[in-house]
Specification:
The complex is a heterodimer of chains A (292) and B (380).
Chain A lengths: L1 H31 L6 H17 L4 H24 L7 H23 L4 E2 L8 E4 L2 E6 H23 L1 H11 L1 H6 L4 H24 L3 E2 L5 H14 L4 H21 L5 H15 L14
Antiparallel strand pairs in A: 1-4, 2-3
Helix pairs in contact in A: 1-5, 1-8, 1-9, 1-10, 2-3, 2-4, 2-8, 3-8, 5-6, 5-8, 6-8, 9-10, 9-11, 10-11
Chain B lengths: L1 H4 L2 H24 L2 H27 L6 H15 L9 H23 L4 H21 L1 H4 L5 E2 L7 H11 L5 H25 L1 H11 L1 H6 L4 H27 L1 E2 L6 H14 L4 H24 L4 H5 L1 H16 L3 H25 L27
Antiparallel strand pairs in B: 1-2
Helix pairs in contact in B: 2-9, 3-9, 3-12, 3-13, 3-14, 4-5, 4-6, 4-12, 5-12, 9-12, 10-12, 13-14, 13-16, 13-17, 14-16
The chains are: A mainly alpha (292), B mainly alpha (380).
């Protein structure tokens, strides 16, 4: 019973991070119809920025802010300079381009920051809370993970639902031609979409790094889990991404806890295959099924 | 089928090319050191995998990020068949078994992948690339876990030793033998792939890539075309994996990480999608560029580990540049320029003779629409 609860709690905290990462993928997919496979190394780079700030002796929170800000700038820069020329062109070019960015950021980070494992601090305790005389698998940092992803979700919902900017972004993503006729600066909206996504990705990177070791490849498998989570939700729905992240986090925690940690990635592959075969539009596709 | 639908001259040309290739390979392998032979073996097994991926992506328009993982199936099959000196299975049988196993895996993945497009297919095969090394770790007893399985090369056959000594007066070294095996496999694979892409099967693959709806209207089963392309390409990856295993004498999860899968994609982009010559060029770049770049790096004061990362950095940057500036790839762009010039010359000649102007081909919008096997002098 205790193991069951602990596995579930672990899966929930892990799932929240997948959710954040999936959210970043969904934001970019919605604004530019590109799956950003470079999301993981982008988040890794911003985490290293935070690590550098911390190693200079500044506080965790300053590093946190620096990572998010560098994520904002990196996302906007990449969209504006590198991705813009392939937007709206053939899918395969966009996929290959984000993969190329993956390789560049990865290798670039290894050249600049080195290829070794370095420990990354956590702002809150990483020891389990004690309930009665038992220790459960929920930590202070785990609570921070859950809360911060929920806050980001709420902010995004507020942005898209209640602000003028959010409305324009939705219009640009929904129908660029018409939006342009109505005076929306579509290109700028796409840049903002990438920048926002990159901030959310950076947050996911920080949340994974906290209390763990980081190196240039530490986010690589997360791009797969984030993608699976986003596909579970249908790639189009932010809420779906979060639910997909939680479902995936829980499933993988149970696979890891009861079958074997080595098979987690295989389980993710199987889940992805089953979902794509049964519901190609994702679990949350309200509209007619999209051809994938 | 090949004979029915192809002029025999194509087959004859490919046969001639293969024979010439074999002669060149033997001559080159003669004249180089064992270190270079090892490098050439590496180029050959990468070339086999890249060739398979070229067929899949260039001809059929499916992008796979999991071909490195498919190579693992070939290598582990070889390792299980060659555990020690006593149990030495004949090498052709080992390679065939590796191909067969990967073919089955490729069919399973291909069936699931046939319904997916662009980013979905990329994501699913990416998941494959990340998942496969875990299998080897989980089944530690049979597959050796992190350490992997050792591969014991069977003894070199007497005829090879004698032939080498007869032709060159030198002993046949292990590196030379492995390089010879890898290159023979590469030539055989490319011969088969080249013929296949010229056959009815290859035309169907291209039709599906270029326009699904028209292909369907023409009576082509889209799913079947996609799955068969994936299977053929996976089989090549399996042969490549077996050769990798023989060359490094080990099948271990660390050889088949996401990195090698992405590297293969880099090779097809650098070489130029859709052409086997480009694939070989890409494999050569993958093999020989790192050494050069790493030396430049260490000469400029980088540590060894940092310098080792310069090569992927260069691949990545060149990939970005190719996608943005020359979507047909390096080889494809050169080839296009040659074709265009030839057409221009023909147009001037036609204008001088008062004939109609042939149109010049447009540069393709999408990578993969360049197809050097169909554009030989004829604009599509």
């Amino acid at each position: 019973m205790q193991q069951l609860i602990n596995t579930a709690l672990g899966g929930l905290t892990q799932g929240m991070v997948f959710a954040a990462f999936a959210l970043a993928l969904v934001l970019i997919w919605r604004s530019t119809r590109i799956v950003n496979f470079a999301q993981a190394p982008m988040a890794m780079v911003t985490t290293f920025v935070a690590l550098v700030v911390i190693e200079q002796g500044y506080s965790y929170w300053l590093a946190f802010a620096a990572a998010l800000l560098s994520g904002l700038l990196l996302g906007a820069f990449l969209e504006r300079v590198v991705v813009r020329p392939v937007e709206g062109k053939s899918e395969i070019n966009a996929v290959i381009l984000t993969l190329a960015l993956f390789i560049v950021l990865h290798a670039g980070a290894a050249v600049v920051f080195g290829n070794s494992y370095r420990s990354f601090p956590a702002p809150f305790g990483i020891r389990g809370f004690e309930v009665g005389d038992r220790t459960i698998a929920l930590t202070g940092f785990g609570v921070f993970r859950i809360v911060s992803v929920l806050v980001v979700m709420a902010l995004l919902v507020a942005l898209f639902r209640y602000t003028d900017l959010g409305l324009r972004m939705r219009a640009a993503a929904f129908n660029p031609e018409v939006a342009r006729l109505l005076g929306v600066r579509v290109g700028r909206m796409m840049t903002i979409g990438w920048a926002l996504a990159s901030v959310v990705g950076s947050l996911a990177g920080l949340l994974i790094a906290g209390g763990n070791l980081v190196h240039p490849g530490y986010m690589d498998s997360v791009v797969v889990y984030g993608f699976v989570a986003a596909v579970l939700g249908g790639l189009d729905s932010p809420l779906g991404a979060v639910v997909g992240g939680l479902v995936l986090g829980l499933s993988l925690a149970f696979v890891s806890g009861y079958v074997g940690g080595q098979l987690v990635a295989l389980a993710a592959l199987l889940i992805l295959m089953v979902v794509l075969t049964l519901r190609p539009g994702g679990l949350f596709s309200a509209t007619a099924e999209r051809r994938v | 089928m090949r004979r029915l639908h192809l002029p025999s001259s194509t087959l004859a040309r490919h046969l001639l090319g293969a024979a010439l290739g074999l002669v060149v390979v033997i001559l080159v392998l003669q004249g180089v050191s064992d270190f270079r032979r090892f490098q050439l073996a590496e180029m050959a097994y990468l070339g086999i995998a890249v060739g398979g991926l070229t067929v899949l992506t260039g001809l059929n328009g499916q992008l796979s990020l999991g071909h490195g993982a498919l190579m693992a199936f070939g290598a582990y099959t070889a390792a299980l068949l060659l555990p020690d000196r006593e149990a030495s299975t004949p090498l052709p049988l080992v390679v065939l078994a590796a191909v067969a196993v990967t073919l089955v895996v490729g069919a399973a993945v291909g069936i699931a992948a046939a319904r997916l497009h662009g980013p979905y297919l990329a994501g699913a095969t990416l998941a494959l690339a990340v998942a496969v090394p875990g299998i080897a770790l989980y089944f530690k007893e049979t597959l050796g876990g992190e350490q992997g399985l050792r591969i014991v090369m069977p003894d070199r056959p007497g005829w090879a030793e004698e032939a080498t000594f007869f032709v060159t007066g030198q002993e046949l070294t292990t590196a030379g033998w492995v390089a010879f095996l890898s290159w023979s496999t590469l030539i055989l694979t490319y011969f088969l792939l080249a013929n296949l892409s010229r056959s009815r099967v290859g035309r169907r693959w291209r039709a599906v890539r270029d326009d699904e709806v028209s292909a369907q209207l023409a009576g082509i089963d889209l799913g079947r075309a996609r799955v068969s392309a994936f299977m053929v390409s996976a089989a090549a990856a399996g042969a490549a994996g077996a050769m990798l295993g023989l060359a490094v004498r080990l099948a271990a999860p660390s050889s088949f990480t996401l990195t090698i899968s992405l590297t293969l994609v880099a090779a097809i982009v650098l070489g130029g999608l859709g052409s086997l010559t480009g694939a070989l060029l890409g494999a050569a770049l993958l093999t020989f560029l790192p050494q050069v770049v790493t030396q430049v790096g260490t000469a400029n004061g980088l540590s060894d580990i940092q310098a080792a990362e310069l090569a992927p950095l260069v691949y990545g940057l060149v990939m970005v540049a190719v996608i943005l500036l020359a979507p047909a790839g390096l080889f494809g762009t050169v080839h296009q320029a040659v074709v265009r010039r030839r057409l221009q010359r023909r147009a001037t000649a036609a204008a001088a003779a008062g004939g109609p102007h042939p149109t010049t081909p447009d540069s393709p919008d999408a990578i993969g629409t360049d197809d050097t096997t169909t554009t030989e002098g004829v604009p599509r």
